[in-house]
Amino acid sequence: MERIEFKKEGYDPQIDYIKGLCILFVVWTHCMNRGELSTILFPYWGDTAVPIFIIIQVFHYYKKGVNVRMPNISKLWKRIIQPYLIMVALMFTAQFFMYYDMTDGTFSSTLYWEKRGPGSYYIFIYLEMAFVIPLFAPLFRKLSTKWLLVLFLILSQLVEIVCSLTHCPDNIYRIVFPRYIFLIFIGYLLATKGLELKKPTIIAGIFSMIFIYLFAYIRCDMEPFFCTSLVLWPLCHWVCYFYIAYFFLTFLKYTYTKLIKCNCFRSCIKTIGKYSYEIYLFQIFYYATISIYVLKALSIIENYTLQRILYIVLSTIVCILPMVYKERDRLICNNHKNER
Fold it and tell me: CA geometry: angle at 266 spanning 55 and 83, to 5°?
């Protein structure tokens, strides 16, 4: 049967390719409303981005062994936190001038919450995961795969029940990691054994597809077994992750191997993946500040469909083009150094 594996040593271009597609999914998520996203079956492909990013994060931690290694604070600060704070400072500065009322010297309260930028919750999830992932290393060393599966299913289901019974508010639910805890187990499997497509995982993947349909389209009330009152997070349930890990991740790897003749396209996607975090930060800034002017400019177009398509295309270009130019400049500099 098919087995999903990545390189544990050295650079694996497939990972950057998958990250590149996923960050594009993130950009497109924030271009459209939920009705438009549902129409194009976005829950089955676009909404998989954050879970896949987390699986890759766990994979990178455990690919060199199941050891307790707490994150390097200095690297987290320089690579993750500092760029985020710079982006937030720039975003709030821009928004201050956008929302400041010159007549009475006040500015809208939406500046600090509603206009903070879509996807800004992910930085909290990433940092929490960085400290939580190592804590499971002792369990991974002591327990068999079957018992680990049972343990993570119990933990994940307890999270669902607790969130449901406590009516966990959206502002808390969005920034805490427990809804993704089952992905730690999946990422560990990917790093140590690979994800094998066999009868049990295929059946689990099919059930996942059914539950995604129930959560995203039927909007079934499954409380207290699943926290379904928060409609913005249809895939944040452990039962949905089998499809994402075993079906969709396999599909993305398959497209990489089949696009070998389209090397230019693959290279572009890999470049986007290499700068996925920078693009993530820039798209927060873009949607919180610049996008409103893009929408106003496009409002002169009477055809709504054409207007939306142009908005998606322009937003994608604006969000990724600076990083593509950055990579081009880096390659040019490297070539000059090699010539010397």
Answer: 55
Type of residue numbered 94: A
Round to whole Å and give the CA distance between 287 and 289. Answer: 6
Q: What is the C-alpha separation between 84 and 74, in angstroms, rounded? A: 15
Q: Find, among 233, 172, 215, the residue nearest to 47 by Cα.
A: 233
Question: How many C-beta atoms lie closer than 10 Å to residue 214's C-beta?
Answer: 17
SS3 of the chain: the string is CCEECCCCCCCCHHHHHHHHHHHHHHHHHCCCCHHHHHHCCHHHCHHHHHHHHHHHHHHHHHCCCCCCCCCCHHHHHHHHHHHHHHHHHHHHHHHHHHHEECCCCEECHHHHCCCCCCCCCHHHHHHHHHHHHHHHHHHHHHCCHHHHHHHHHHHHHHHHHHHHHCCCCHHHHCCCHHHHHHHHHHHHHHHHCCEECCHHHHHHHHHHHHHHHHHHHHCCCCCCCCCCCCCCCCCCCHHHHHHHHHHHHHHHHHHHHHCCCCHHHHHHHHHHHHCHHHHHHHHHHHHHHHHHHHHHHHCCCCCHHHHHHHHHHHHHHHHHHHHHHHHHHHHHHHHHHHHC
Tokens standing for residue 10? 């050295």
- Over residues 118-131, the pLDDT tens digits come to 888 899 999 999 99
Using left for φ > 0, alpha for ψ between -120 and 50, and beta otherwise, residue 7 falls in beta
pLDDT of 86-102, one tens digit each? 999 998 888 877 765 54
Q: Which residues lie closer than 8 Å to 34 by C-beta, 6 or more apart?
A: 231, 232
Instruction: Kindly report the average pLDDT of the chain as a whole number.
Output: 87
Name the pairing type of β-strands 106-107 and 195-196: unpaired
Short-list 237, 233, 100, CA closest to 170: 233
Instruction: State the amino acid at position 138 in one-letter form.
Output: P
Q: pTM here? A: 0.91
Whether 332 has a pLDDT exceeding 80, the answer reads no
Asked if residues 22 and 218 have their Cβ atoms less than 8 Å apart, the reply is: no
First to last CA, the chain: 50
